[in-house]
Specification:
Strand content: 15-25%
CATH topology of the largest domain: TIM Barrel
CATH architecture of the largest domain: Alpha-Beta Barrel
Number of strands: 13
Helix content: 25-40%
CATH class of the largest domain: Alpha Beta
Distance between the termini: 15 Å
Order of helices and strands: EEEHHHHEHEHEHEHEHEHEHEEHE
Number of helices: 12
Radius of gyration: 20 Å
Number of domains: 2
Largest sheet: 9 strands, mixed
């Protein structure tokens, strides 16, 4: 038995260059601005056992301040538990956060999977039955800006061409935060005219369009150029099954929903209500690798595909073990700025735009656990707080 006797949560900061934060800090508000910089906060989770077993994870997309608060709530509940009992721990922690959005649950579950893989000398992908090895990827842009980056339809098309030259065969647009339906539709059509015959295109307004009518208008632009999916279009916040069923009935472009619906049961309700063509899953957002694979299998049972949100080692392992999925999301990227992720790897792992292979794919790590080595010197150097819970 691997009895958990210590959980550590390391808070740290890092600086992202040539990026500007608009608004109150949501990822959708990070845009390009030459010479600007923003200070971002993340955290790392370490689970240790009496027998020496150890699991680690640094959440990149879900590592927000609200998520940290939930992780700190859950961390002491692991003490004295058998780390191999991931299913039981998943179930108990899910109930513990039943009044909240579950954001802080995923990093703990992922650390437990890392621990299991290291304990048994196998990658997480191997434990899950993974088989792909390399994952077909799409470039997922930053939101459009007014600062000289992705600030026009011509810039979006030029960046799509740049990504195509690097090897990408898929390209997803995040538009302007203002939600001007005519501007968005014009961008959709222009990029479509330039590259739709050579790239798979997607659109994600990230709930910026203000009305159902706006969502319908932009969706019809997607129809004109055969976009692969249309994701979170308008300001229902991506949670109205009825609204998106109506949208599906009026468009040809498939709808991709449930990024903002947490966990397997609500996603089942959304799909059965007819609110989406694809399901969305994320091991950070959806209660870990355990939760993500439940959603993938739910989608498979319903005959649907399940697209994994965002990029990270845990995401690669999940996708590697899923038959019913299509693309790995390399996010967020732009022509003159890095993705806003901290440099926490000491092993060469990268989700940078330029890390794609000429085949348009990214490799799945093969080492034990998550298969990555974290740079604990970097984390310690930039650490602002350490929470340690001990049995």
């Amino acid at each position: 038995m691997s009895i958990i006797d210590q959980v550590e949560v390391h808070e740290f900061t890092f600086t992202a260059r040539n990026l500007h934060l608009k608004g109150a800090g949501a990822h959708a508000s990070i845009t390009y601005q030459k010479g600007a910089s923003i200070l971002l906060t993340k955290y790392a989770v370490v689970v240790s056992c009496r027998d020496g077993a150890r699991g680690e994870y640094v959440p990149l997309w879900g590592g927000t301040r609200p998520a940290l608060a939930q992780t700190l709530t859950l961390a002491p509940l692991l003490l004295g538990r058998d780390a191999d009992h991931r299913e039981q721990i998943y179930d108990d922690l899910k109930r513990e956060l039943r009044q909240y959005d579950h954001y802080g649950h995923g990093p703990i579950d992922i650390a437990l999977w890392d621990l299991a893989g290291k304990k048994f000398g196998a990658s997480v992908s191997h434990l899950l039955g993974g088989y792909r090895g390399r994952l077909k990827a799409y470039a997922s842009t930053y939101h459009a800006d007014r600062s000289g980056g992705l600030d026009s339809k011509e810039k979006f098309a030029a960046f799509a061409e740049q990504c195509l030259d690097l090897g990408y065969r898929g390209f997803k647009i995040h538009g302007w935060n203002e939600g001007d339906a005519r501007e968005e539709a014009e961008n959709v059509r222009y990029v479509g005219r330039q590259v739709a015959d050579r790239m798979t295109l997607m659109l994600d307004p990230a709930c910026e369009l203000r009305t159902f009518a706006d969502a319908l208008y932009v969706g019809r632009a997607c129809d004109d150029f055969g976009y692969f999916w249309y994701e979170d279009p308008y300001r229902d916040s991506g949670v109205s099954a009825f609204g998106h069923r109506k949208l599906r009935e009026m468009l040809k472009t498939p709808i991709l929903q449930t990024e903002h619906v947490r966990g397997v049961e609500p996603k089942a309700d959304f799909a059965i209500a007819g609110g989406t063509d694809f399901l969305r899953a994320d091991p950070e957002y959806d209660m870990g690798i355990t939760g993500c694979m439940k959603i993938a299998h739910l989608a498979e049972a319903l005959g649907l595909d399940c697209e994994v949100h965002a990029s990270d080692p845990a995401h690669r392992h999940c996708m590697n073990a899923m038959r019913n999925t299509n693309f790995y999301e390399v996010a967020l990227v732009g022509p003159d700025c890095p993705n806003a992720m901290p440099p926490v790897y000491a092993c060469g792992y990268s989700d940078a735009l330029e890390a794609v292979g000429k085949d348009g794919c990214f490799p799945v790590p093969t080492g034990p656990g998550l298969g990555v080595t974290y740079d604990w010197d970097y984390i310690a150097k930039n650490r602002t707080n350490l929470h340690r819970f001990t049995l």
